[in-house]
Each structure stands twice: as C-alpha cells, then as structure tokens.
Amino acid sequence: MLIDAHQHFWRVGENGFSWPTPDLATIHRDFGPADLAAVAAPLGLAGCVLVQSQPDDRDTDWLLELAADEPLVLGVVGWVDLASPAAPDRIAALSRNPKLRGLRPMLQSLDDDAWIAAPRLDPALDAMIAHGLSLDGLVLTRHLPHLLALARRRPELAIVIDHGAKPPIAAGDHDGAWARGIQALAALPQVFCKLSGLLTEAAPGQGGEALSPYVAHLVAAFGPGRLMWGSDWPVLNLAGDYADWLALARKLSGLTDAADLAALFGGTCRRFYRI
Q: Where is the signal peptide (predicted)?
C-alpha cells in the first residue's frame, strides 16, 4: 500500500501564500487533490500526508478544511508559530482536528540556526507532546547539531527529518558534516527520516545515480523501520516527475525484502503519523 509521506497543496495568492515565487514557473500555479491523483493514482497511491508550505495560520486552517473531505489525505502536518505565547492554545485547538498529525516550523528559512533548540519553545513543545503531535524538521546540514540537542533534551517528542536534511548532493559531499549529523540523530529511537526532496538538491545534469551514496547512508542509518518515502510533489516537478522518483527511490534503496519495501513505501509513515 503506497503512502506518500510528504506532499503539498497550495493556491497562488491565497491562505498566506508567499512561495513558490513567479520565477519558478513550473510550480507557480494552484495544486490540489485532483492534480495529485492524476499523477499518482495510476501508480497505486493509497494516501498521503499533506504538509504545510506557508508559515501562516491561514494555510494550516485551509489544509485541514480541504483534508476533511478528501479521502486521499490521511494526515496533515501544519504550522504554528511555536515561539508565540499563544502557541499552546493554538496547538490545543488544532489538535481537535482528527487529521492533524504534526507541526512543521520552517527552520531552513530562519536566521537563527539554533532556533528550534531554544528553551523558550518549551511551552509549545509541551503542548505538542501532550496532544500527541510530532515535529517535522525542515532542516539543512547546519541545523543538525541543534536538532540533535533538541532531540536529546526532549526524547518524548517524535521527530522526522524532512528530505534527509537536504544533503549536499550538488557538491558531492556525502562523508562530511551531513553524514555525521544524520548518524548522530539516527542513534535516537524517536527520530525518523523522510526519503524525499533529494532530486531537487542535485545539480543539473548530475543524474539520479548521484543520489546513490546519500540514499545508502539514510537506509543504513535509519533502516526501513524509521525511513519513509515521500514525493515532495509538486516541488518535485522542478527536477523530475512522480513516477520516475518513485522508481528511482525503489532502486537506490537497495531493498529487496517485501516487508522492508512495504515499510519504506507506506508502513513506516503510517506508524510514525499514527494513521
């Protein structure tokens, strides 16, 4: 049962929309459930996790409203300003929606790399834990030490690293700080990872095989029991298409056991997000 652990919907000019910008013409248009079904249903997609794309309450409210009547959406990862004094009440209110599964601060866009590890976020994190919500970490290599500090300090908080922490594929660096940071986080049992978003980190012309050592490291570090496949569609369209990325991920994973493949392409996502 194929489950996409990471995809987006948006409407240009609505719900706090600020990205993608017009220069990204391929994806600067509306995307919704019918668009996803058109590319993924023929491949056997059974459901997806819908992830926020705008750091705005209006986006989260819209995603939850859309998801309520959309059987393809099995869970939603929303956004809350975790530093706001109002965050605990907002989290409590959102948690009453049966499809909300987690929250994602957009860490890659913040000026402070250590923002997520600040104790001032504890009231919001306490609320997330109390209401059974997980944290999606939208991070780059430079954020990994700070995400590790948070994970060590809050072992009760379930965390999933989005897009394998966007490894430096274009630079060809697969043995440096990224690999060490991933290995350290993988040592903590509450930390999971998404095999997603890698194609857009490669340089033009590198080809899919350039991803091989990075995928191998993620599979070795997390195993299929804590690694979940996601498309990052429609951002994926900047570098490839849905069917090709699904096939490439299956190939590069190196997995042949049916149970392992079932975990990577659906089971682990269902378990992590309590679907």
A: none
